[in-house]
Amino acid sequence: MKLPNLSIAAKLYLIFALLATVTVALATVAALNARRHAALTDEFRSAFEGAMNVELVNGLIYAVVMESRGIYMSPDIATAKVYGDGLLVFNDRIGEVVKDWQRAVRSDDEALFGAFSHRIPIPGIPARAGAARGGGQPGGRARMGRQRRQPQRAQGAQ
Fold this sequence. Notes:
By secondary structure, the chain is mainly α.
């Protein structure tokens, strides 16, 4: 290919303009890729935190189950109280984890998280329908048992 008869200055200007255009195009592509990378990194971070919170809640649920087994396997009320106190602590920790997790939930996951968190009592948030009614929650059963035993003890002391 033969360039038209242009002066050396015109040819140099043409080469510099072509290089500047390619540089701007590459910078634009790099900026778009950086933005996409940042979005993917944020999405990955959110998924990672969600997975960590799921595992944390899963472990706490396992602890609640073990404490509830300790309650019904206890030979006396004093031993059951130890397990009941542990159950309440783990149950409250589940609520705290879910409360912290709620702040990090992305808008596209709000509906799924809402269905999950609706069943868990969260400290500092008023009870919602279906959450923390007492009888259906292990911690609620422990609290109800504690409340029922106290009047019986008062009557026995008289």
